[in-house]
Each structure stands twice: as C-alpha cells, then as structure tokens.
Description:
Order of helices and strands: HHHH
Strand content: under 5%
Distance between the termini: 10 Å
Helix content: over 70%
Number of domains: 1
Shape: globular
Amino acid sequence: MEQLFEKTVEGAIKAFEKNSVQHESKNVRSQFFKWLASFIERKDCDEVLGTISEWKKVVFPRMSPPLFGVVRYYFSGLLPSLYAHNRTRVVFREK
C-alpha cells in the first residue's frame, strides 16, 4: 500500500508539471502532506467524507456508490494509518 501511495503521489506531481503548473515537486509533496495531515486529524473526517458521499449521489448519480465507499475507507482508514506510520514508524497496519 505504501508503494502504491508513493507511486500515485509521484504520478500526480508529474501531471501537475505536464499541465504547466509551475511548482517544485518537493513543495507540492510537502503541501499535499500538510493538507493530508490536517484532514486526517479532523475529528469529523469520516463525517465530512459521508457528506461528500451524499453530495456525490446528487451531482454524479451514475458514479458507483461502492467506489466512493472505497475512497471513504481509504481516506478515513488506510491513509491515517500510513500517515501515523510515517510520522512515528509504528507498524503500518493495512486494515
């Protein structure tokens, strides 16, 4: 999971660079992790994702509900665990 996450972040940074968004890769990465940390540390992170899920049903009714369920789990379950691992080197649990 950690390798997949790193690969995805690197791909996103390259996409930014291709689209003429002039940002230094390290700066983009740093800003993303600051945003991720602030989002994960919110006490209502899962509730926010639930609200987004409800909004998505109205705005994008054809988008698969199970797909957003996976996204919600990723942001409220897996990413917080990965983030804690990277900060403290606690054993990463892919659950």
